[in-house]
Design a protein that fits this description.
Distance between the termini: 49 Å
Largest sheet: 9 strands, mixed
Helix content: 40-55%
Strand content: 5-15%
Number of strands: 9
Order of helices and strands: HHEHEHEHHEEHHEHEHEEHHHH
Radius of gyration: 23 Å
Structural class: alpha/beta
Shape: globular
Length: 348
């Protein structure tokens, strides 16, 4: 609170005394600021995660702490660009994404505060950036969904890189304009280098069919329009949990063997350095990576992987250990470089 000192000395003295008492009464100890008692506030979350999942997290968090949460929904790139544009003036307290490159973009702009140590301790090192400027909150696996009536198991590619070979021309699809696919390419750049990624993208341009959205690509496989599609696993499991009408002819194939096609994309959460409600924002991040938050993810309908606080994945999913995913530091994923490479290849 800013206090203007005026010429009325007597009033100023009285006001100063009153303010001194008030300040003493409103100060909070470190213990109070990190507890539910410090919850009489409100935070704004820029959310690029599944809206239904985040809403479940928010409802449970507010019920437990009393902290109100305002959600602003958008996609990964849209929200990260907005935060970078807003800079220190951003009204966001927390940023949640589906993929890591958007988090890395905000981190590289110097806009994240450090994640509290208690929260970091809840998330295994492989599911958070080495910098601890943000943390993983969930994960999704890359898969090739295919029509088993068109492709026999022995004819499946041994590596995602094989999809750039001539024998796969016209046989597979992807959604290149989406943040999901661009995260996969970003991992490829980190794992194999720019030259290998550029060569693969050139082969992809020759061989693949572009669809808008992973669901649309999977539906195309299901309808017999295309033999296979490179997507994330949860589109298949989510459809199966409903009617299965868009996935009844589809089988998910996991590359494993630490192949780039076995990439496990980490969904991220971070607290903005400019947050006016930093304690409450940190409390929210701690909640969603804690046992209750991860159990909401485990039992929910998003079918993303729970990754923190020892909570196992939904029992319908292939266990994370069996995915044999490559090791990728999420802090090193670079959406700008991917955009450049994909544009050069004619995919964007």
């Amino acid at each position: 609170m800013k206090i203007r000192i005026n010429a009325l000395a007597g009033i100023a003295i009285a006001a100063t005394a009153a303010l001194g008492l008030s300040a003493c009464g409103s100060s909070s100890s470190p213990a109070a600021s990190s507890s539910a008692d410090a919850s009489k506030g409100e935070i704004t979350v820029y959310n690029a995660q599944h809206e239904s999942l985040t809403k479940e997290w928010v409802d449970a968090f507010t019920a437990e702490t009393g902290i109100k949460v305002t959600l602003r929904q958008g996609d990964d790139t849209e929200m990260s660009n907005q935060i970078v544009q807003e800079g220190a003036a951003s009204p966001a307290d927390v940023f949640l994404t589906e993929n890591s490159p958007a988090m890395a973009q905000v981190e590289h702009a110097g806009l994240f505060a450090d994640v509290n140590k208690d929260t970091v301790a809840q998330v295994p090192a492989e599911f958070r950036p080495s910098t601890n400027k943000w943390t993983g909150i969930a994960a999704r696996s890359t898969v090739l969904v295919y029509d088993k009536n068109k492709i026999s198991e022995d004819k499946l590619p041994k590596s995602m890189l094989d999809l750039a070979k001539p024998e796969w021309k016209g046989k597979w699809a992807a959604s290149p304009t989406g943040a999901d696919f661009q995260a996969i390419v970003s991992a490829l750049v980190e794992l194999k280098g720019e030259a290998a990624a550029e060569a693969w993208l050139k082969g992809m341009k020759e061989n693949s069919t572009a669809y808008k959205g992973n669901s649309t690509a999977m539906k195309a496989v299901n309808a017999g329009e295309i033999d296979a599609a490179l997507i994330y696993h949860y589109y298949y499991y989510g459809d199966q949990a409903k009617t299965g009408e868009n996935s009844k002819n589809v089988t998910p194939y996991y590359f494993k063997n630490q192949d780039p096609g076995a990439f496990l994309s980490v969904s991220g959460g971070g607290v903005l350095k400019s947050s006016k409600n930093a304690d409450n924002a940190q409390a929210f991040l701690k909640f969603i990576t804690g046992k209750k938050g991860q159990e909401i993810l485990q039992k929910g309908t998003s079918f993303e992987y729970a990754i923190a606080s020892g909570v196992p994945a939904n029992e319908k999913l292939v266990p994370i250990k069996e995915l044999d995913a490559p090791t990728v530091d999420p802090a090193k994923l670079n959406s700008q470089k991917v955009t450049e490479l994909m544009t050069k290849a004619g995919l964007l």
